[in-house]
Amino acid sequence: MHLDVRALIESLKGFSYLAIWGIIFAESGLLIGFFLPGDSLLVAAGFAASQNLLNIWILVIGCFICAVLGDNVGYVTGSKFGRRLFQKDDSRWFKKEYLVRTQKFYQKHGKKTIVLARFVPIVRTFAPIIAGLGVMKYKTFMSYNLVGGFIWTFGVTLLGYFLGNLLPAEQVDKYLFPIIMLVVLVSLLPSVIHIIQERRDSKR
Asked: Structural domain tally of the chain?
């Protein structure tokens, strides 16, 4: 059975935008978003836009806004509940080591963390939370948040867009689905490995 990815995305275009924006928002500012495939999703979405399945500017501007808003939610979470998070018991979806790892990242990179963290899974989710704990004033945080959000969303999405334009037009339909699935699966692999390791450790 042949899966017409082009027709599927076209029929779900409105939902596709909302799904992509929602994932970018969640990974940027919600505690449960650390396992989401933000980087690969932006590449895959950019690739789809290169084939006129999505509008690249609607896509990338929406991703930018959601990334910035997500980080703001993370900052508020850190300022309101940050101290409690360090006292929170570990669970399947939350480990205090994520906060500790992000703290060390801050100690090494300082204010640049808000920009650099955009390209580091897990740290990307917890960086604004640590900033909200008092590591960074909101005005300073927002400045770096805008810069980091812009570089990440525009840079990574446009990378996928330009890579898609390099693919010969006659081969697009043949390789569209495999390329998108490969990008998503590769990005999910670290999270899957992490979950498997956590289950093994809990059994031990």
From this structure: 1
